[in-house]
Amino acid sequence: MDLIVARNREDLVKARGGGEVALVPTMGALHEGHRSLMRLARSRADQVVVSVFVNPLQFGPNEDFSRYPRTFDSDLDVCRAEGVDVVFHPSVDDMYLPDRQVSLLAGRMGEIVEGESRPGHFDGVLTVVLKLFNLVQPSVAVFGQKDAQQLALIRRMVADLDVPVEIVGAPTVREHDGLALSSRNRYLSEDDRQVALALSRALRAGEAERRPGAIREAAREVLAAAGPRLDLDYVVLVDPATFSEVGEEHAGEAVLAVAARIGATRLIDNVILNLNPA
Ligand code: PAF
User: A GO molecular function for this record (predicted)?
Assistant: First the structure.
């Protein structure tokens, strides 16, 4: 079957097949990480829909909405190569009514960690994701673990609002040297890229420790040693479901998450640890 490109909600309705649908929401600039989400989606449903929409609601006034990479032709090639059935690529006017009033609030969990640095970001993410769920009506939706707080909040939204969609998280895909794949990596110069490697090195240093305090400290040390071109935003060790900091006696899963700015590019990364205090 040829790939169908739905540019508005009417096209989308026509493109919907009869069986189960798996949705992969994206903002385009697709890379190997997105491809892994598409493969997971393919294994879970009859029809795979990929949305490509750079959502203005989730960008702050000083963020990179206007320069965010838009590479729709090559995105289509990626989707074709992965056997995607439908690409939903609406315009901003198609997604949002001009007199739009109602949107979602991510609550306290949307105001901490990444949400503290990006006020309103998660409100915008949840609003567009719920709209995409309503439009595409998937039974399953696949998101990357790379955006761990986004994934946790989407799970929270689905639980809090009884949204009938199963949320599947997919592991972060990395370059050979550890850099987590991100659409924003294309902003990095070769020198910036070398500095950015400190993020994944910091996570590995944290992984080598056993106690929360030592884990945070090991990660911080690596990031501090990266020099002045890396402007550290945060290092946190948090509960994967709530994103609140874990205490020294925490047992079980925890997410070590880091964010830093390298030049004009802000990058995030994380790893899931399993802590077993003796
Ligand atoms: O992760 C992303 O690319 C975006 O935040 C998402 C989930 C597609 C919503 O715009």
Answer: ATP binding
